[in-house]
Amino acid sequence: xxxxxxxxxxxxxxxxxxxxxxxxxxxxxxxxxxxxxxxxxxxxxxxxxxxxxxxxxxxxxxxxxxxxxxxxxxxxxxxxxxxxxxxxxxxxxxxxxxxxxxxxxxxxxxxxxxxxxxxxxxxxxxxxxxxxxxxxxxxxxxxxxxxxxxxxxxxxxxxxxxxxxxxxxxxxxxxxxxxxxxxxxxxxxxxxxxxxxxxxxxxxxxxxxxxxxxxxxxxxxxxxxxxxxxxxxxxxxxxxxxxxxxxxxx
Length: 250
Description:
alpha/beta, about 15% strand
């Protein structure tokens, strides 16, 4: 029986305490990987998920807090992971911020906040991790958004930041080849927005009607796409995999 190629390899997943990040953690963990769960505000969820996964396989998960907008925090985070396990094989840049920035009302704070979270932090994390990832021909996966190509009204800065993340994916794929593969996953309607971004039932149905498969996706759809790019896509780099039920075509 062939050994799972991911067994005992190490993945650092940002924003891994809940929603899509947590599902990515579960998927990679189920394939035998050791997981570093990064979180910032969601400590309770991160510790709960860490306990859940460690019960399935002892000492296979650690939870690490970091505010990635703080300079040098990315270096400390990577060093913590490598110090614990002695290696780093996969970096998943999942953490991001999402809120309205209507033209005419955009503040410099909102611009800096979204850009720092959605493009600056992933870039400097990738830079900090590159030397370690290169040792074992590692992988970087960036979680972008279909709205990197299809602007979402009233979310101007978010869309710009995700578009930059797509370009970063291509730039790093070229810069870090051949030792490191860099790809992205662009979700469509997977989990509905929360808080001030909550949609009405009418708005949700309108989105579904414009999706070819006529339904919303699930976090597992994104997690499986990440697993494919990590484990099975040995000859793919610099690409963006849209997981949107065909919404981009409507």
